[in-house]
Amino acid sequence: MKKIILSGFIALTLLFSATSCSSDDDNNDYESIISAKDLPQPATTFVTSYFPTATYKLIKKQNIPDSDGSVYDVSLSNNFEIDFDVNGNWVDIDGNNQAIPVELIPEKINTYVKENYPSQSVTSIDNEKTHIEIELSNNLELVFDLEGNFIRIDK
């Protein structure tokens, strides 16, 4: 009798474990790898305009937007990483310690950086819903309002 109960317990444990694991597999549906032809047109135009020599290394599409609204995560051969929203507008650009093209930095922010940190370049920019964050080549993070006015240094 003890063997039957023990066998039943083991069988139920295995059944619940297998069911639990199959549920975990559903979390892989959160994002999928796509090709460049599946990106919104503004995103592909952006990449070819500002990074003409780069090729796509990896493009992921998230089924649920991040808190900043990004849906597409694009990794380029030059090590830049760009996130785009559902319409193909860039949300953030990470140069991975490389300078972001100056044309992508709002003029007022670029002027502030030149005046206050002349030997630094912008290596990352996040276009948040309420503010803009940049990271400089010295790893200092600066926060600006949406009009480009300096707010604070983030640590």
Automatic annotation (TrEMBL):
Residues 1-23 form the signal peptide. It comes from the Bacteria. PROSITE patterns: PROKAR_LIPOPROTEIN. Residues 71-151 form the Putative beta-lactamase-inhibitor-like PepSY-like domain. InterPro entries: PepSY-like. Keywords: Signal. It holds the Pfam family PepSY_like. This is PepSY-like domain-containing protein. The lineage of its organism: Bacteria, Pseudomonadati, Bacteroidota, Flavobacteriia, Flavobacteriales.
